Recover the amino acids of this structure.
């Protein structure tokens, strides 16, 4: 077999393995429940159930927002917290043994741009938790909040969610909503569902906005 053919076969196999691995990394990860109500031209209308988020406010701009927010929130779910199920010690002193609790990773990671140009980076908490049972963050920059059921317009796209691409997709969604006469609430959400090393064409990204 010619060297070029061998190299081509190796590349094809490597790409297939990369694609399968990218799919398996997120196939079983929990995400917020929703019902698709309608498919419009280039976007969907979804009804989301309520869910709980851990979030942090970032005042930087660009990719620094997601990187810094991710680090802060990852610290919380990977053990930077105090479990509410800590065990009481009976000896030698009557005290509470503080324990941390690891929280399962969910998807997506949300970056919300608010009207005053600050950013909220969010992790969705697993559905098994309530605000009463979630561990308490050790970092006061991490806040826990329940998001009430909402109807959202969602634009899906693939590939790398660079700053320029995100801004372009936000404008596309807003233009289509205004074209269709759909009223929306301004806080735009950029949602990324895949780890950084996922195969580009399998990367699921969305722009979401609450609609009236």
């Amino acid at each position: 077999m010619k060297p070029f053919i061998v190299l081509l076969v190796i590349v094809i196999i490597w790409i297939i393995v990369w694609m399968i691995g990218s799919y398996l990394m997120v196939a079983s990860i929990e995400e917020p429940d929703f019902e698709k109500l309608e498919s419009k031209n280039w976007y969907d209308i979804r009804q989301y159930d309520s869910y709980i988020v851990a979030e942090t406010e970032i005042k930087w701009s660009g990719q620094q927002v997601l990187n810094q927010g991710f680090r802060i929130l990852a610290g919380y779910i990977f053990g930077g917290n105090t479990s509410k199920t800590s065990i009481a010690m009976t000896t030698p002193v009557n005290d509470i043994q503080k324990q941390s609790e690891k929280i399962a990773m969910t998807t997506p990671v949300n970056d919300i741009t608010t009207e005053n140009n600050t950013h909220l980076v969010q992790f969705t908490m697993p559905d098994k938790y309530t605000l009463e049972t979630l561990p308490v963050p050790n970092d006061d920059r991490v806040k826990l909040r329940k998001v009430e059921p909402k109807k959202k317009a969602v634009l899906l796209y693939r590939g790398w969610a660079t700053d320029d691409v995100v801004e372009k997709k936000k404008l596309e969604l807003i233009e289509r909503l205004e074209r269709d006469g759909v009223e929306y609430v301004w806080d735009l959400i950029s949602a990324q569902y895949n780890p950084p090393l996922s195969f580009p064409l399998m990367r699921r990204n969305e722009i979401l906005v609450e609609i009236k």
User: Anything to note?
Assistant: The chain has one domain: 30-210. Residues 3-27 form the longest helix (25 residues). The mean pLDDT is 88. The first strand starts at residue 34 and ends at 39.
